[in-house]
Amino acid sequence: MTRYHIGTFNGESSARQLSNSAIGIRVAAIRHFHIEHGFSSPTTHPEIIKSLEGFRRNHYRNLMYDEKKPLLNSELERLINTIKQEPRQLLKARDLALITLLRAGGFRRSEIVKLTTDSLYYRDDALVVTLRFTKANQAGKAETKILPNDEDFSPYQYVKDWLKISGLTSGPIFRSLSTNGLSLKKNGKTEFPSISAPDVNRILKKYLKRAGIDPHQFGAHSARSGIVTQLGIDNVGIMKIQSRTGHKDLRMLATYNK
């Protein structure tokens, strides 16, 4: 993330660095307190607006250089074959479901870790996943992804197998496991704490490395750009791709097509 040095004291750098979002919060606070005390806000000054726009441009320019490769079918097949070699059955079942669902649904890490058993509905021809809150949808309006079971590397059976072997019937779908790949137990009861968003990236990179794929060139977001790119290669219509990822802006969706 792009960060900026701000402020000086007695001619010396403050050594504090702020991200774009942090700067935005402080600008909003400055505006609020000026207006609250009856003063015009300096945040509307043309030079301030120009500077903030420059910060954002630099942020997105840096992001362009940090783009990861899309996770296409060729890499996904190698990942699946690698995961299938995992001797710990619970771990294997969870990670097959996680990686295939992540890619097929074009999910963000923050979205897939929040999926619960109530988010899933099995049709004869597809796995239907319902999301309530996403990065682009903070109002809680239901969004649905339909993942056909005849699509290459469909998560349909993998997710079903994971739920069966884990015995999960409620709560988060993807849970943490002990180091030996068995369920975590506390006070004699089986407990599966939910995995976190960083766990998703860690799990993916672990299998990338095992599969002989450079983990530095891929990340969890590679699954999202991967499904967009792969569906484009397969000549799937843009509206179907948009419904898969949940993008509101077609221009932003286009940046995911590598």
TrEMBL record:
PROSITE patterns on file: TYR_RECOMBINASE (PS51898)
UniProt entry keywords in alphabetical sequence: DNA recombination, DNA-binding
Pfam families per record: Phage_integrase
UniProt KW Cell membrane keyword: no
Gene Ontology BP terms: DNA integration; DNA recombination
Keyword DNA-binding: yes
Example of a GO MF term: DNA binding
Domain Tyr recombinase: 66-258
Protein name, per record: Tyr recombinase domain-containing protein
Organism: Parashewanella curva
